């Protein structure tokens, strides 16, 4: 990661383009609010544009009524400032947008980059808490203001969806496989790509999004949809019916008949008798066809017609035929209905098949569920009991439906070494002045106890020394802590020329 | 608009790259779910990949518990298919993602474009309703499946935010100025750019987003932030104090003193006496400095310290000084507190200034409000009474906070002229089979009465002829309509080679 490399000191500002451009080519210095430019002009006119300013980027409240946030988006911010430079056509556009500004201002804009800017940040992927700056940005006030909107745009959603993914992981539990399926419902194409990336950072195992897989090396997953199932009219559509065995030692010339024979055996099995009658033939054709294409990774969506009376028996017929040829079917996906009930019934069916036909391990065949899942529905499934191994989560994960925005802000805390504050009748909106240092204090058992902020020049907390930690706004909240380990939270990710 | 051009027949498929690429360069044929490729392979293996399929793209329920949706995203879909072609490196990535697929499949993928695809759609920006297809996509089943995810990704959020913007316009009323301020809170950079574009389509007047302004020709707006105000320490920071008059006829060498004199006059005015005492000098310096930079477009954020006791009097002092020099101040922005009360008090203050100092029109000075606004808060302001002229709306608009996703789906309705259906225990999830024609029927007064769908070969409704319209799922909902005007809803936007 570019940002990590910078933190390790491997790459320095001006090191010859070592930091790649932002992933999304639309992230340019114009991706900002117009007022950043009108302010820059006013600063420039007043001769204040080089005033050394310090801004904190922080949030006021963890999302989803939760107690933590996971910080995401830092690498993209570093990529952005490492490549921050206006193109001539961008300057020309700004001239039309701000027609009353003097030429000298546009010459100034043309000249700026981020070599005078310093960025300190908490490492991406860390658990972070309200009010403590995730990033401290120091530099000429006009330049740092131009970074406000792109930084917030790169951090707000990234942190929100990383946090959302981490919360889904916590409720699903470590052993479950979590798949991000949200591209089609995300807020625009880049929303989808960011969602895949930051869901993976937040603890997901894979995505359906091919572009994100390619860009970020995330494992990608996917099999087929309902449309695939309903596109088949019947088994006679399958022309090439041959399948070679897994080890290549033999070939079944008519895999379709093998499947049909297995379906008859399942229908006749005493332990399954009466649970279903005729299955849907277009579905059976689709499953068979898919298995012929992917004998090594057969996973079937079983709810196009009827899960227990058609989808699961059809799947088992194909899976047992594959088993004859030395292939192990992966499993099924449920995309509608009562997922707790259907997963339990499906598991029973799989176990009955294992017992009836002596196929060792068949009872453990994977069950994926994927219908409008979110934290609450997974929690409800856990409480009811279920047999789902993998969750495919889309809309609620990627749009952060329960809270669609994180309110990170970017506040001036110091200018020319003078502390600055934003007052407000709402005490939670009052900013905390001064350039800060931030520490995470750990207790005896190795767990973090508290994050504290100090002024830049105050002594740092020491291991074994008692320190009084005070809540910044609630006077009664205070505690003495004797840290066993002290971690400085913000590291330098962009040293500028300093 | 490219799409409109296509509908007019100006541009044809294969017309030599006449349709530009998607706005976001990240929108490539890989921006799709992996299962579209695994299905394509299974179709190809089964020799079914060229089967002629018809898919409907539609939604099941209007968002925000509302009665309408505004369709957005069509132009980007057309740009996407007009340029649909895999690059060699994309094919190479797919080979690694699907290692068991045969070479012939990747050769097939390399060869495909959308020249065999036809797209019919309702014009972008139209009011649309559940179940009626927004787009009908016909073509080889494997190719059309590859379009599913990118089309949904381009349409879902676009339509959602266009609808959200239109709803904000309806509640705010036509005369109000609506400004989209959401970039920093949007779901990623492209979410921000799309939000600006589609908010404008939905009835907003301008955006703060410079990049969106440049890309789409949307008017851009912006002045300054709280940080600008708090970055000033006092009036002695202002070095260049001179301001030429609007007509260039004279020059004020010390505009700062002119402002200070006006502040004293306002403080002494009988009609304003006692409403405030000393104002904040760092704020006064910031306002004065901003006015020196933008004398023609002075708009001040007045809530950094105290709206009525500092921000508004300081603004008026600067505005009256500008007035002396022939400039008309634009107005103020409120970003916190009780917006109804503060806007009314500010209006009273402006009117008192107009009367006290005889500055005609000063009472009508613009008041912008911008603190976490949404449909409900604007409605509440309307009910309380307020004096806001312009609303700046961010988070709730661009993230569609009240409902963060629209559930457009893409369903197979016909293959090789055979109707296909997706069944479900949930009747609202059952798809409506067959390729359709869709009409909007208008009544005597020129208002639309109903949208109806017919089979492709059924006779179309005729003006003046009674027709029975039936709800597709609720049998008791039916009505006879005698249309005075019949509009075919879907037009051909991409004719392929046909």
TrEMBL record, chains A, B:
Origin superkingdom: Eukaryota
Domain Nicotinate/nicotinamide phosphoribosyltransferase residues, every copy: 328-429
Pathway it works in: Cofactor biosynthesis; NAD(+) biosynthesis; nicotinate D-ribonucleotide from nicotinate: step 1/1
Swiss-Prot/TrEMBL cofactor(s): Mg(2+); Mn(2+)
Pfam families documented for this protein: NAPRTase, NAPRTase_C, NAPRTase_N
Domain Nicotinate phosphoribosyltransferase N-terminal: 30-156
InterPro entries: Aldolase_TIM, N/Namide_PRibTrfase, NAPRTase_C, NAPRTase_N, Nic_PRibTrfase-Fam, Nic_PRibTrfase_pncB, Nicotinate_pribotase-like_C
A GO molecular function held by the record: nicotinate phosphoribosyltransferase activity
PANTHER family in the cross-refs: NICOTINATE PHOSPHORIBOSYLTRANSFERASE
UniProt similarity note: Belongs to the NAPRTase family.
Protein's job: Catalyzes the first step in the biosynthesis of NAD from nicotinic acid, the ATP-dependent synthesis of beta-nicotinate D-ribonucleotide from nicotinate and 5-phospho-D-ribose 1-phosphate. Helps prevent cellular oxidative stress via its role in NAD biosynthesis.
Name of this chain's protein: Nicotinate phosphoribosyltransferase
Organism: Triticum aestivum (Wheat)
Upper lineage: Eukaryota, Viridiplantae, Streptophyta, Embryophyta, Tracheophyta
């Amino acid at each position: 990661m570019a940002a990590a490399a910078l933190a390790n000191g491997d790459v320095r500002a001006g090191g010859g383009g070592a930091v790649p451009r932002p992933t999304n080519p639309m992230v340019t210095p114009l991706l900002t609010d117009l007022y950043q430019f009108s302010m820059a002009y006013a600063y420039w006119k007043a001769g204040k544009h080089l005033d050394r300013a310090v801004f904190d980027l922080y949030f006021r409240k963890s999302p989803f009524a939760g107690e933590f946030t996971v910080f995401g988006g830092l690498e993209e911010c570093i990529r952005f400032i490492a490549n921050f430079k206006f193109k001539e056509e961008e300057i020309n556009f700004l001239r039309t947008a701000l027609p009353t500004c003097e030429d000298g201002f546009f010459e100034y804009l043309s000249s700026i980059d981020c070599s005078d800017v310093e960025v300190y940040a908490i490492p991406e992927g860390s658990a972070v808490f309200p009010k403590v700056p995730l990033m401290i940005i120091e530099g000429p006030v006009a330049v740092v203001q131009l970074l406000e909107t792109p930084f917030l745009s790169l951090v707000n959603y990234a942190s929100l969806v990383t946090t959302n993914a981490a919360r889904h992981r916590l409720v699903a539990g470590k052993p479950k496989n979590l798949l991000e399926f949200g591209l089609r419902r995300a807020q625009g194409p880049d929303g989808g790509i960011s969602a895949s990336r930051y869901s993976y950072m937040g603890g997901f195992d894979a995505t359906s999004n091919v572009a994100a897989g390619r860009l970020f090396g995330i494992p990608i997953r996917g099999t087929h949809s309902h449309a695939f199932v309903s596109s088949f009219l019947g088994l006679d559509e399958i022309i090439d019916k041959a399948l070679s065995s897994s080890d290549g030692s033999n070939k079944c010339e008519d895999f379709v008949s093998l499947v049909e024979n297995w379906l008859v055996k399942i229908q006749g099995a005493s332990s399954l008798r009466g649970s279903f009658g005729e299955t849907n033939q277009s579905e059976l054709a689709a499953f068979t066809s898919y298995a012929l294409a992917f004998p090594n990774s057969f996973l079937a969506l079983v709810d196009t017609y009827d899960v227990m009376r058609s989808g699961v028996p059809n799947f088992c017929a194909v899976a047992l035929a594959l088993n004859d040829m030395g292939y192990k079917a992966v499993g099924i996906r449920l995309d509608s209905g009562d997922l707790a009930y259907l997963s339990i019934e499906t598991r029973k069916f799989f176990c009955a098949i294992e017992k009836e036909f002596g196929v060792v391990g068949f009872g453990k065949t994977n069950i994926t569920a994927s219908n409008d899942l979110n934290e609450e529905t997974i929690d409800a499934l856990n409480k009811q009991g279920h047999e789902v191994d993998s969750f495919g989560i889309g809309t609620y994960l990627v749009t952060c439906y329960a809270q669609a925005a994180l309110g990170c802000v970017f506040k001036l805390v110091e200018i020319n070494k003078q502390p600055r504050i934003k007052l407000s009748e709402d005490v939670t909106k009052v900013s905390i002045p001064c350039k800060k240092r931030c520490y995470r204090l750990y207790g005896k058992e190795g767990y973090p106890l508290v994050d504290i902020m100090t002024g830049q020049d105050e002594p740092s907390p020491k291991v074994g020394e008692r320190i009084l930690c005070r809540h910044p706004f609630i006077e009664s909240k205070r505690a003495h802590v004797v840290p066993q380990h002290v971690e400085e939270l913000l590291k330098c990710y962009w040293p500028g020329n300093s």
